Amino acid sequence: TLARRLDKSLFDVRLVSPRNHFLFTPLLPSTAVGTLEFRAIQEPIRTIRDLGEYYQAKARGVDSDAKFVICEDVFKGAEFNVRYDYLVVAAGSKTNTFGINSVNEREGKEVFFLKQLSHARQIRNRAIECFERATGPLVSDFQRKRLLQLIVVGGGPTSCEYTSEVYDFVVNDLKSWYPDLLKDVKVTLVEAGPGLLGGFDMALVDYYKDELISHNVDVMTGTAVTGIEERYEEDGTHYTVALLSDGTELP
What we know:
Elements: H1 2-5, E1 14-17, E2 21-23, H2 28-33, E3 42-44, E4 53-63, E5 68-73, E6 79-83, H3 101-105, H4 117-134, H5 141-147, E7 149-153, H6 157-177, E8 186-191, H7 202-214, E9 218-221, E10 225-232, E11 238-244, E12 249-250
Parallel strand pairs: 1-4, 7-8, 8-9
Antiparallel strand pairs: 2-3, 4-5, 5-6, 10-11, 11-12
Helix pairs in contact: 4-5
């Protein structure tokens, strides 16, 4: 927004970012289940009129004396410097895993974050894979239920919106595409704090929680994920489970 609004007749605006698009994050959960297409919530950086330069790179450091930013190209990792007169730092954020190493180790496999378009694509592809695998004629009842169990971690706005989107997907789309799987789908929302949607009005929070429960979403508050571990069946089949602070294991 700043790069777009700055007066280009006064400033030579140069932008450094590893992502070449602006993302409207409130709608990100909708793209993870196909309610919206990815192109509907992004706008390419190069649509900014009269932008001086755009570098698809990561800013790795700043030399405030010499006034340049040390950048790392996202494609080959090559370093280069970008000089500046005025510097604006908008660093964004990363998902906090609270030092749980097994969560980081399983990222992109069974664990997915939801902050970027790439994450939403991973979730969408993984969901389709699980549904298709669950229809296989050689899949056991346990494996089918495991494949169709979705655990959403965190009770903030993004997690709650994604949970709602998943429910809508199940009742509107899954019912038509995979009618035999409907009975085995299980959605669990896990929140370490005492309640959902911290900071929201309690009347809204209570209403939303009651709606989730009435739609068979398992809501677990006061419960934290403490790790991810692998388990093995007698036939050698392996799967992962989420370890919760109350001693529960969710496959």
